[in-house]
Specification:
2 copies of one chain form a homodimer. Chain A is 39% helix and 20% strand. Chain A has 13 helices and 14 strands. In chain A, the strands form 4 sheets. The first copy, chain A, has a 7-stranded parallel beta sheet with strand order 5-2-1-9-10-13-14, with helices on both faces. The first copy, chain A, has a 3-stranded antiparallel beta sheet with strand order 7-6-8. Chain A has a two-stranded antiparallel ribbon with strand order 3-4. At the A-B interface, helix 3, helix 4 and helix 5 of A face helix 3, helix 4 and helix 5 of B.
């Protein structure tokens, strides 16, 4: 079975670990979000790709969900001593090595997809990880700029990590997306997929950014295979992260049903909501999307695997 | 008193620490060798500039003489796990931060001299440290290439660090030197100097490379102020490092007298040899260079300070 998964960071990575356990023989291609990518200290940092790679490759900081296990922070401390920031982005020494290798390869002319493949040669994530695009796309968030009485756009990481999404977001802009092309292999993987899954990643800044790359949304809609998603909202709040803040920016309620309707029946065939949101099932189904209520908290790999099994079961059901 | 010092790495840095102790009120400008510079992992590494900066700024690994105190090696270990080399160049995590800042600033368009000044703003070395040039100069060493029956040129660091200077060097090539220009401030500092000193740095690959930048040798010769050097050879062997190997490559004997004659009376006014080489004094003087035999082992800062005092005393003597 060929499965394509559109993944953001932590939620996507943990779901994928469950999917690998649930479908050990499946051929899994992950299309990773690169809208979170940021240049820091002259280095190219790809938080979502790395979170997937580290999580599936056994290098992740388990509790934190991002970054490396056994991490140290000597480089960051020294950069601070030089007065070089930002200091709000937690790059560890082991993580720095990944960004140094990536930046060196990109400087040598390799596209990000080739670099990602090279990095994965070490991590052996057990999936094929492809960035959504080799082009530069950066998610910017429009926030108030009270100092000049107007608004300004900041990099997603500044909004998310530095400001903790604590200020109102007025718009989410995937800058560069319109001009970007899917990375080599993305459209082919979608065309050859038996099932396409949207893990409980952020529907706006993770899955939404991937869908903003021209050609990807259309390829999924036209693939003619079941497309099943899992709600990142449980009981009217994000399972983790601050998805509600960016949903508000695009006028979508922070409910499991509203997210399904945001994706829409043109894209989604099936949708899983948590058991606490069982009351939302009729709403989603009335929008033309098959819906089931199952436990959606990825408390451990077994729980994530069970969610993956439910998603594959729903895919089978909608294709029947 | 304005003192200009042409410095390589460890020997130059330790001498400078002594000079600062011996002449605390002097205005010291250090012209640093950049021929050892190397690009590693996409980062610009300036070993000699950093050794001077760390030594005078209190960040040096004392016993080793290069690199940072309290150093860790997580980044290097990770790069190795990615299969990215070279593994023979010992970059520590703290040191990496310096190269990251430098590379970022150079990428932003700053010349190396401005970058060095910015790095020194943190380290406060108590001297003005200027790279010999903002242009790219790389010392290459011609060695045998038995695999193809010929010879090849390797980067100085490969010869020095990876091969430990254990193979014959047939030539030392300061690649790019002919086209290079002295960095801003270099010629001005020489023109305004009261004394110019050559510390016991390597006469070929450190001081010699600086002198290979067009204009610097001439400026020193024309400065009309005492130029005094200290022998890096004591008892017919280098005090540290492998200067004898590169001296052989250019046909200079590894003796205190031969090094003085290599610099020549057109450049040098005074030369200090170690007391064990007192017999060489007449040879040096017959070449037109005032010579004194004094202890030249920099066992500690006091010993280095005493050497600096002797150098300044000889400078006074030759100008009388």
């Amino acid at each position: 079975m060929r499965i394509v998964v559109l993944a953001g960071g932590i939620g996507g990575a943990r779901f994928l670990r469950g999917l690998k356990a649930a479908a050990p023989d499946a051929d899994i291609t992950v299309i990773g979000n690169t809208g979170d990518d940021i240049h820091l200290f002259g280095l190219k940092v790809c938080p979502d790709l790395d979170t997937v790679m580290y999580t599936l490759g056994g290098g992740i900081h388990e509790e934190q969900g991002w970054g490396r296990s056994g991490e140290t922070f000597a480089v960051k401390e020294e950069l601070g001593a030089y007065g070089i920031g930002p200091d709000w982005f937690g790059l560890g020494d082991r993580d720095f090595a990944t960004h140094i290798v990536r930046t060196q390869m990109i400087g040598a002319g390799y596209p990000l997809s080739a670099v990602t493949e090279a990095l994965c040669a070490r991590w052996q994530p057990g999936v094929r990880l492809i960035p959504m695009t080799d082009d530069r796309v950066e998610t910017h968030v429009v926030i108030d700029a009270p100092e000049d009485g107007g608004r300004k756009a900041v990099h997603f990481q500044e909004y998310w990590v530095r400001l903790h999404a604590s200020v109102p977001a007025h718009a989410i802009l995937p800058v560069g997306a319109e001009q970007s092309k899917p990375a080599p292999g993305v459209l082919e993987a979608i065309a050859e997929a038996d099932v396409i899954l949207f893990p409980p990643s952020n529907p706006i800044v993770s899955v939404g950014t991937i869908l903003a790359v021209p050609g990807i949304r259309e390829a999924i809609a036209d693939a003619g295979v079941p497309v099943v998603g899992l709600s990142p909202i449980v009981g009217d709040a994000p399972v983790r992260g601050m998805a509600d803040k960016v949903l508000a920016a695009v006028g979508v309620d922070a409910t499991a049903a509203a997210v399904a309707q945001h994706y829409g029946s043109g894209l989604l065939d099936g949708w899983l909501v948590d058991t606490v949101d069982a009351a939302a099932v009729p709403d989603v189904e009335s929008a033309g999307i098959r819906c089931r209520a199952v436990p959606l908290l990825m408390t451990d790999v077994d729980a994530a695997a069970q969610m993956a099994r439910e998603a594959l079961r729903l895919a089978e059901e909608v294709s029947a």
